[in-house]
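User: I'm writing a short report section on ligand binding and want a predicted complex to refer to. Could you take this sequence and 6-O-phosphoryl inosine monophosphate and write out the structure as tokens? A short remark afterwards would be nice.
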Amino acid sequence: MFSDDVRCLVVVGAQWGDEGKGKVVDVLAEQATIVARYQGGANAGHTVRVGEDEFILHLIPSGILYPEARCLLGNGVVIDPWTLAKEMAGLRERGIDLDGRIGISRRAHLVLPYHRTLDAAQERSRGSAKIGTTGRGIGPTYRDKIARTGLRVGDLKDLKRTRTIVSDGANRANVVLRGLKDEARVECDAVMSSIEEVRSMMLDLCADTGDEIRAELGVGGRVLLEGAQGAMLDVDHGTYPFVTSSTTTAGGAAVGVGIGPTAIDEVLGVVKAYITRVGAGPLPTELPEKEAERLRQLGGEFGATTGRPRRPGWFDGPVARYASGVNGLTALAITKLDVLDTFDAVKIATGYELDGAPVGAFPDSVEDLGAVVPVYETCSGWNADTTGCRTMGELPTAARQYLGRLEEASGTPIRIVGVGAARGATIRVSDAGIAAA
Ligand code: IMO
Ligand code: MG
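Assistant: Sure. The structure tokens for the complex follow:
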């Protein structure tokens, strides 16, 4: 994917998250000099398998497993410092050298304990209208950021300033908690002593992440921008209000690390060969429970962050086409094709109908998206183990045909196909494309 012409590559989820971005980023990170996260926080759960070892990363970019890559958390990320400390300790324990390899933006906002408290209390108060958040304090942290009341990493060097922001934040949190009739309360002093535990670690990691990335691109380095969540969870383009609170789509990558959109050369969208969603909100191709359970077990579809069972469905063409448009995708990576190896038939939604009429533009309300009826095309299954395939030519014909249909349904060329969790279980599609194999 990287080449002389492609030096800044964005990898985004093009469904509802959990598309296998971690594995794709890990594979591409081998050629990158910098890997950076640009939005989201520890709500992400990126799983990477290296040999027999499995790593689940929430904050640190998936590039960390290659010894050379420098890993940055850009200004658009919301950083929970205690989770970051734990994640770093866990990686060190497993022999990963982190020295000088992680940098965090002074402009990034901190997720504080009261953001988590508020996230949980708000979810409790919503009752059956819950969003099903990951409970990591993401929404309340971005709310503080946009309201201009957040605590940024750079503020930590000034303890007095930090205390003022935290004290105001704790007071506001308690007003909200009382308003929600929630029993939880937060205390400024307790938050300040927790901050004391991580303050010097955070200050030591500070870097001019935007400058670093711009400079790296200036000298011909290769920068990989790792998205979290997916297009359908984007705060603007996703299934609002059942979304996360950040710009998950590719435009957010420029803003979230501090480069211009013209610096981005390629946008690779990651989709599973089927679809899943975790949390509430419409999912047009959702499978009935019995079939869903089969796919869930075969695909190991349980949340990497919360352990919740994911909701599986057939590949949704309209979602992929829409995600391709709002991200400006230049290529697709299809993951977990092997999960479908034992199905006699596999389905693809090629369009939607609403009240018997074809739906044109992708629905912009959850009511409409919840009411659409997918139009399915059935493809024959391949009933063969694809996990050992390393070229398109080695894939069974029916699997290749299925991929061809995914490409047509999404209107985006497939460049990478994943056939297992291992690093090597990856097929690169040549420029000639799927049909040439
Ligand atoms: P990765 O990066 C899948 C979902 C939550 C919930 C909604 C809002 O691993 O793909 P939040 O905690 O962000 O306020 O929750 O977004 N969600 C994810 N779903 N993968 C993720 O990350 C997600 N991060 C958040 O389940 O529906
Ligand atoms: Mg995940």
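A remark for your report: The chain is about 35% helix and 20% strand. The chain has three domains: 8-106+208-268, 109-203, 271-436.
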